[in-house]
Fold:
Amino acid sequence: SASTSSGMHGENDVARVAFMTFGVLYESRAHPRSQGFIDRIPAALAQAERSEGFIARSYLDSDTGLHSWGELVCPRFLPEELHPNVARTLSLWRSLEAVCAFSYAGVHREAMTLRDEWFRKREFPTHVIWWVADDHVPTFSESTARLEQLHANGPRPDAFNFRRAFDSAGN
Structure:
């Protein structure tokens, strides 16, 4: 069966999980206060790529300066002066369990326990999850729209978090 416009899938579809993390650093990436976070990025990305259930992630092309999954877009709820301090990732996973296992283990878990040292108080979602068809690659525009939905409406089948997750059928 085909995906519906709501993003839900029929029982026979192979669905994948799109996952965006989102935070606003207190200072610029170059500032000493941000260094502990910046230093952990390569290890966290490598941990994700080695994780069971990992499919792919957006990456920054060092030659072009462009992200592989589209232009970075900031949510409308974030004041423009904070845009330069945004840190985010966008990845695809085979299951909700796989992305959850990665998020709460290893260097990523360590970074989450230290996030108050680097990131501003979270008055908005720090991640958004949604199901995509097995042939779909999410974009940053799409993920930002999902983050805005989660922020405005709370967890729903088309934009949710770990605390209130939905399966690919919307349950």
Summary: The first helix runs from residue 35 to 50. Residues 1-12 have pLDDT under 50 and may be disordered.
